[in-house]
């Protein structure tokens, strides 16, 4: 299945975001998944302040990870990101049913297309 996960890491260094994506990517690859795309959207104000790990956040570093994996792999990536103290929020959606013609409809990840 094709999944897209949008994550928000605490505002800080870009190295932290790279480590988070590397951890998730290694987990996907070890379980037989394929990473399709990774995008760094940068730092933005959160729609509302979020309390996470006893800290209130008003800004976050957004990133997007698109990958093919099994449901079990997707659940383990989600649970890994949920317990990481550097991650404020992570949400994933299933984009396709795994067939090539369905996957080809989804182009590159673009923040400007959402505005």
TrEMBL record:
Name the major location.
mitochondrion
Which InterPro entries has this protein been placed in?
Answer: Ribosomal_bS6, Ribosomal_bS6_sf, Transl_elong_EF1B/ribsomal_bS6
GO MF annotation terms: small ribosomal subunit rRNA binding; structural constituent of ribosome
Keyword set, alphabetical order: Mitochondrion, Ribonucleoprotein, Ribosomal protein
GO CC, alphabetical: mitochondrial small ribosomal subunit
* Superkingdom of the source species: Eukaryota
Listed name of the protein: Small ribosomal subunit protein bS6m
Q: What is the lineage of its organism?
A: Eukaryota, Fungi, Dikarya, Ascomycota, Pezizomycotina
């Amino acid at each position: 299945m094709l999944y897209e996960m949008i994550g928000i890491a605490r505002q800080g260094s870009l190295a932290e975001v790279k480590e988070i994506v590397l951890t998730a990517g290694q987990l996907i690859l070890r379980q037989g998944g394929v990473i399709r795309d990774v995008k760094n959207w940068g730092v933005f104000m959160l729609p509302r302040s979020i309390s996470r790990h006893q800290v209130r956040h008003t800004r976050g570093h957004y990133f997007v990870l698109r990958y093919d994996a099994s449901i079990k792999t997707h659940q383990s990536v989600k649970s890994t990101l949920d317990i990481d103290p550097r991650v404020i929020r992570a949400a994933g959606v299933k984009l396709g049913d795994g067939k090539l013609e369905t996957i080809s409809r989804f182009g590159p990840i673009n923040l400007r297309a959402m505005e």
